[in-house]
Amino acid sequence: MVAVSKAESKPLRVAVLVSGNGSNLQVLIDAIQAGALPIEIVGVISNNQEAFAVTRAKNAGIDVAVLSHVASGKRMALKTFEKHAFEQLTTWQPDLIVLAGFMRVLSAEFIEQSPAPMINLHPALLPAYKGLDTHQRAVNAGDRVHGCSIHLVTAELDSGQVLTQALLNISPKDCGESLQSRVQQLEHKLLPWTILLLAKGVLPLNNDDYTASPYLPSLPLKLVI
Ligand code: GRF
Fold this sequence. Notes:
The chain is α/β, with parallel strands linked by helices. It has 6 helices and 10 strands, in the order E-H-E-H-E-E-E-H-E-H-E-H-E-E-H-E.
């Protein structure tokens, strides 16, 4: 029998930016611990010191930087936040930066000088419903289908190449809140799946690297559960 030797590839180094509960961060931590995701979370940045995501990261032994958006009643200027975030990211040297429930809009300058490609999890089927309040807007519009997207972050808000989407059917009983919870369950599948495809090199880390061909589906890849 011929033994096939597989070169050990290094896990993708991932930094995660958060602002709130961190359920998506937790899914990544759980997937790594289960051996289902070949990545290492090298650090978490939170712009909110109250975020439960900070506790989740600390419990998992991950390096955390809290660059609090508001401290002692004072709002940290975006420039100051970005200066500290840039220094921290440069220290961690991630291959990929994941915005998972990160609620601060970053400047074009920061995005263009980012030390690694950035992806964002957005709770709507882009290009529909950029910005906030996406679930209620989908209900108000009488949409039949809704979901979430993961896209490359570019200077224009929620407008970079969409890599993946997960879809659900809106039922007549749905309201903004029920959709939020249903979409979040999709996010918990979409985020690890997308990062797995990035880590395996199936999806591109840079905007220009995915060449559509007769043999590959065009982006975004869609997940229907
Ligand atoms: C997600 O639903 C995401 O779509 C939105 O913020 C939420 C973050 O959830 N932008 P969590 O902090 O990961 O629990």
